[in-house]
Amino acid sequence: MQNTPEDISNAASGHKANLSNPNTSEASKAHSKEVLEKLGGEDAFYGDQENVSKNPNEVAGGLKAALSNDNTTEEGKKEAQAKLDAMK
Fold first, then answer.
1. Greatest Cα-to-Cα distance within the chain, rounded to the nearest angstrom
2. 10: exposed, middle or buried (C-beta count within 10 Å: 0-12, 13-18, 19+)?
3. How many CB atoms lie within 10 A of CB 12?
4. Cα(83)–Cα(75) distance, rounded to whole angstroms?
5. What average pLDDT is seen over the chain?
6. Distance, CA of 31 to CA of 16 (rounded, Å)
7. In whole angstroms, how large is the CA radius of gyration of the chain?
8. pTM of the predicted model as reported, rounded to 2 decimal places
9. Which terminus of the chain is more solvent-facing, meaning fewer CB atoms within 10 Å of its CB: N or C?
10. Is pLDDT of 84 > 90?
């Protein structure tokens, strides 16, 4: 393992899947829990995503897509429009 963020996230994903697998032993689940804690717990999944800055053009594009999506509820469209207006 190279210890890149991707490698750590992949390892954490496997151990997290093991924890929810009903076919694995309790010893295996205990090991996975221990490894997850060593990898950084929930932060092992690409770290703290709340502190990552978002590209405003991509955010605006997603909001505009929501406005034109037939599957978006009226409430969702109003919320997307409000967020888009707040970006201006």
1. 54
2. middle
3. 21
4. 12
5. 84
6. 11
7. 19
8. 0.47
9. C
10. yes
More confident call, 12 vs 22: 22
Q: Are 12 and 45 in contact (CB under 8 A)?
A: yes
Residue 3 is classified by DSSP as: -
Backbone angles phi, psi at 4, to 5 degrees: -75, 160
Q: Quick check: 74 and 37 in contact, CB under 8 A? A: no
What is the predicted pLDDT for the residue at 65?
94
Higher pLDDT, 60 or 88: 60
Look-up of token digits 């429009």:
81
pLDDT of residue 5: 75
Angle, helices 56-68/74-87, rounded to nearest 10 degrees = 150
